[in-house]
Amino acid sequence: MGTDDVPLDDKAKRMRDLLSSFYSPDPSSTPNVSSKHGALDAINTNSFNADQYMNLLVQKSNLEALLQRHVEMAAEIKNLDTDLQMLVYENYNKFISATDAIKRMKSNIVGMEANMEQLLDKIMSVQSRSDGVNTSLFEKREHIEKLHRTRNLLRKVQFIYDLPARLGKCIKSEAYADAVKFYTGAMPIFKAYGDSSFQDCKRASEEAVAIIVKNLQRKLFSDSESIQARAEAAVLLKQLDFPVDSLKAKLLQKLEQSLGDLQLKTDELENVTVESTDPSKQGKVSDSIRSTPHEASVREFAEAICAYRVIFPDSEKQLITLAQDLVIKHFEMTEQYVKRRISSANLLGVLRTIWTDVLLMDEILCEAVLPDFSLEAAQVAVKQYVASTFTHLLQDISDALLKVNISPKEAAEEFPLQVALEASKKAVLQGSMDVLLDFRQLLDDDLGLLVKLRDFIIDWVQEGFQDFFRALDDRFLLLSGKNNSSSQDNGLTEGTQSEKVLAGLVLVLAQLSVFIEQTAIPRITEEIAASFSGGGVRGYENGPAFVPGEICRIFRSAGEKLLHHYINMSTQRVSTLLRKRFTTPNWVKHKEPREVHMFVDLFLQELEAVGSEVKQILPQGLLRKHRRSDSNGSTTSSRSNPLRDDKMSRSNTHRGRSQLLETHLAKLFKQKVEIFTKVEYTQV
């Protein structure tokens, strides 16, 4: 710090300022002394006050701190001197390098000016020679360009003179596109010189064009021509400035008439099957569908719509309606087709063909949004197919049950009721499994139309089974004669009124209801849970679509009702027989019978018929003895009488028999006898 007080001459001060301004270190990188020793100015700034800094440092620091600060500042001064020395050396090296570079540049520039003067002379010489060549060839170039223009004009003139002959050749070969191209190319010349120089050519060309227009009109309205050919004819007429707007309605009518030829033919689609589990067969099937004449007709129709749209750009609304009509007709045919007994493979073939047509039409008329439009129509068709399948299943079960109505004399089997029961069980269980497998093919198929309907199909299948079993319960009541009000409407069970219904059929229905409750419903529930879980489109607020517990309750109740109905029918026949026996004769004048009456034989026949029917349908069961606990303490009933009769018959003493009889009568009057007990599904 003492060196700052020594006066410096002006040269030394100027050199120090220059070096300081050029090599001054970054103020941000210097240590902040003021932060360590109070709020003082930085030591490296121009506003640094040495006296103030020393006074504050002496006031705030002790001797040891002052000595430490002295050592630090001495080290910093030494480092700064070293850095300054290195900077001076580096500056000298740069000055030396710059001096060498200037010397080399000076030596290289020597002689360059003479070379530049030589280059300028050569350029001027080339320019003068080029001007001479252009001057000498100018007249010839002008002459050549004039001859070229004359040649092009002669070609055009020759083309105009040859145009009538060209048009005549095009008419003979029916190359109307080339004829229109030639005539439209000559139109500017005819407009400019058609009334003077080329009057004859213009008149002959117009006559040929009139013939072409007439032929194109005839081709446009010819039914033998394809739709694409008629569209091309309309385009050519438009190029000839013919008023084609008048033809718009007629051509659109032709397109509407062609929709009838594009309707799907069910006889062609019945042979189309889709093997969902075999990818190789799927490819073959799809190839066969694409190779059908229907595919070619639809593609031709799509091309005609594309051409029609080009001819009449403002016809988008009519074309959208036309494309939607095609889809509507396809699904109307599908709805009629699914009413028949078809498999899911046949339905997949129809839907795959429709979806191919939809995608093809969507490529050229995306404004119609045909995929979404066809999705709405497909919902109706597929839902109707699901309902129709359950209707056919219900009819199969009814047909199997109606075989019971054959009289025993006409039946070929020894046990007709047992055969009918087994056939009905198979129709219910195996038929339901086949229906689920059929629906499963719809879910597993990768057709874009069905992928979007997957959740709907799951709900429809579950709802279909719920409605099917309810309808089956109604059908059971109808067949048993307990629901005569609807028999006239359905017309399915002619001759199944209560007086004509066989009791065996009612017994078969009762046992079939037990089978549905205990076997069929659990099996179908497992299959639905495994393959048809999900759905939920119908909304959770509506509850589950398939409720097996409710179906089990329905058929449990139906089985009990039908079993009691069978008992009532059997006992009514016996009661009628007894009533006739006891009401017909005059018992006052009746003689004492000497032999067994015919009524006994008839009575035994009725009992034997009931036993034969029961043995075919119901299991044997355990022989249940009536005990006190069975009838609230009663020890006597109609079931316990045979046992006591046997005991009484084995008694050889008159006294013991009378005592037993008295005891028996006493208990009859003291205790209530249970008559109407719950009937079990057994022979006993």
Quick structural gist:
71% of the residues lie in helices and 0% in strands.
Indicate the topology.
Elements: H1 10-23, H2 50-60, H3 63-109, H4 112-173, H5 176-193, H6 199-220, H7 227-239, H8 248-258, H9 266-269, H10 279-290, H11 293-311, H12 316-337, H13 344-364, H14 370-402, H15 416-444, H16 448-452, H17 454-480, H18 487-490, H19 503-531, H20 548-583, H21 598-617, H22 641-650, H23 654-670
Helix pairs in contact: 4-5, 4-6, 5-6, 6-7, 7-11, 8-11, 11-13, 12-13, 12-14, 13-14, 14-15, 14-17, 15-17, 15-19, 17-19, 17-20, 19-20, 20-21
Provide structural commentary.
The protein has helices spanning 10-23, 50-60, 63-109, 112-173, 176-193, 199-220, 227-239, 248-258, 266-269, 279-290, 293-311, 316-337, 344-364, 370-402, 416-444, 448-452, 454-480, 487-490, 503-531, 548-583, 598-617, 641-650, 654-670. By secondary structure, the protein is an all-alpha fold. Among the domains are: 68-242, no CATH class; 379-482 and 501-585 and 601-617, no CATH class. Helix 12 runs parallel beside helix 14. The radius of gyration is 56 Å and the shape is flat.
Number of strands: 0
Q: Pairing-aware structural class of the strands and helices?
A: mainly alpha
Order of helices and strands: HHHHHHHHHHHHHHHHHHHHHHH
Query: What is the count of helical runs?
Result: 23
Rounded mean pLDDT score = 75
Per DSSP, what share of the residues sits in E-state strands of 2 or more residues? under 5%
Rounded to the nearest angstrom, the radius of gyration is 56 Å
Shape: flat
